[in-house]
């Protein structure tokens, strides 16, 4: 992809928003207390653990498309919602956050890679920039839910 001032600005902004903008995703996940990660509040069908698993599955699907669009054209399969609402151990919780962060870093590396054409339309009709924006939107939506759950549980 040819670098232009407009493209450079877009890449910088995508990276900032993928990281969470004013609400950094990984920081918020790491601040969430493990002991409260499995709590289901009345009226909700998800805990923080379920939200993290759902975010991670969707992010992975989009990352796979971004890394190899021809082999991974499926971008919006049925939503994965983990059945178990409680992480078994604190180590499992932290490993899931580590994995989420690692895959987010991979996605950011794709966005920053000057060899990748963020605007090429692939056979599924989508672009890498679309996938990045979808990931930041999806993660932002669910981080908002996580933040709300955390406030109700006294995390923040």
Q: Could you state the oligomeric state of the chains shown?
A: single chain
User: Which stretches of 5+ consecutive residues score pLDDT under 50?
Assistant: none
Considering DSSP H and I runs of 4 or more, what fraction of the residues is helical? Answer: 55-70%
Number of helices: 5
Would you identify the CATH architecture? Up-down Bundle
Strand content: under 5%
What is the CATH level 1 assignment?
A: Mainly Alpha
CATH fold-level assignment: Four Helix Bundle (Hemerythrin (Met), subunit A)
What's the alpha carbon Rg, rounded to whole Å? Answer: 16 Å
Element-level helix/strand string: HHHHH
Number of domains: 1
Overall, the morphology is: elongated
Distance between the first and last residues' Cα? 42 Å
Main β-sheet: number of strands, strand sense, barrel status? none
Q: Report the mean per-residue pLDDT as an integer.
A: 92
SS-based class: mainly alpha
Which descriptors would you attach to this protein?
5 helices; Four Helix Bundle (Hemerythrin (Met), subunit A); elongated; 156 residues; mainly alpha; 0% strand; 57% helix
Give a verbal description of the structure.
The chain has 156 residues and is mainly alpha-helical. The chain has a single domain (5-152), classed as Four Helix Bundle (Hemerythrin (Met), subunit A) (Up-down Bundle), CATH 1.20.120. It has helices at residues 5-18, 25-31, 48-67, 90-112, 128-152.
Give a brief rundown of this model.
This protein is mainly alpha-helical. Helix content is 57%, strand content 0%. Helix 1 packs antiparallel against helix 4, helix 3 runs parallel beside helix 4 and helix 3 runs antiparallel to helix 5.
């Amino acid at each position: 992809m040819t670098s232009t001032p407009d493209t450079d600005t877009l890449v910088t902004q995508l990276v900032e928003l993928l990281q969470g903008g004013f609400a950094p995703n990984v920081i918020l996940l790491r601040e969430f207390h493990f002991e409260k990660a499995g709590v289901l509040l009345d009226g909700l069908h998800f805990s923080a653990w379920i939200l993290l698993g759902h975010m991670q599955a969707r992010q992975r699907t989009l990352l796979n498309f971004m890394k190899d669009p021809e082999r991974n054209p499926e971008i919006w399969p049925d939503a994965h919602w983990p059945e178990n609402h409680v992480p078994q151990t604190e180590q499992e919780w932290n490993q899931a956050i580590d994995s989420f962060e690692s895959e987010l870093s991979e996605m950011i590396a794709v966005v920053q890679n000057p060899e990748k054409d963020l605007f090429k339309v692939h056979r599924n009709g989508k672009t890498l920039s679309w996938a990045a924006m979808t990931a930041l939107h999806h993660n932002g939506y669910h981080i908002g839910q996580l933040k709300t759950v955390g406030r109700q549980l006294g995390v923040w």
